[in-house]
Amino acid sequence: MDLLNAAIKHDPNDEASYRKRADQEHSMGDRTGALEDYATAIRLRPSDAEAHLGQSSVYLDLQDFPLAVQSATAAINLDPHLGAAFEERGIADIGTGDNDRAIADLSIAEKYFPKDYRVYMSRGAAFFAKGDYDSAIRDLDTAVALKPDSADLFNDRAMAYHQIGQYDRALADFTRATQLDRAEFNAWIGACYDNAILGQLTLAMSDCNTALGLRPHDTMAQGYRGFAELRAGSIDAALADYNAALRYGAGDPTLFFGRAVAHAVKGDDAAAAVDVAEARKRNPAIDQQMKALHVELPAGA
User: How big is the chain by its Cα radius of gyration, in Å?
Assistant: First the structure.
């Protein structure tokens, strides 16, 4: 850094030194300084694709996805063979919701970086967002093979398996994620839910207890534990968790339906009717969805 500072002091128009200093600032976490130096480098030499790419990377870190796309696009226009720019833009595209272009960009990036797990992880996320879970799983299989110590990758693949109803495979991946990272909250609640679906209710409640230890009062964890308790016949405990989840602001129709079932089992038909009406208003197919998860209203409710 000292050498770059000296070079810039000696020649304030030394574009390359500004870009190199920005690279170092970015690596050190100084995003403000990096953006200032990348901007100066671009002002001095607008055709520097690497400076536009660096700028995109900082914007991506800041989750300013539109500006990340803009900078990466500038880099691509200047150098259509800059594979890293396609990877950066593909990731930013996911942030802006343009999953089709994300898939196209990341497929180009794959040609340059066939061993980079992040390409497959990101493209898998784009496929997942489009509801193409089989393609997401294929990409995540590759990503896991390249980086088998990543809890995030196992968690992502587990969620895709869950979406296609392969709960046993989802559970295996959620469990592996918790083994790799005991603080992986999403994996704990995923394991809780899939254990509950599979009827492994003691394990389910244990997993949700661990999740709530990481994030007390998390509405999703409380709702999933309520689901496990309901299936286990612990109606009062289920009601307490459903009440807490709904009190803290969750509006998932499965919570209203689960609480409706709990009210009905306890004989409170009026409360059950209010909750089931709310669940059906939010999701007209909720009865069929919950039946597939082995939760139904008692006959006559």
Answer: 25
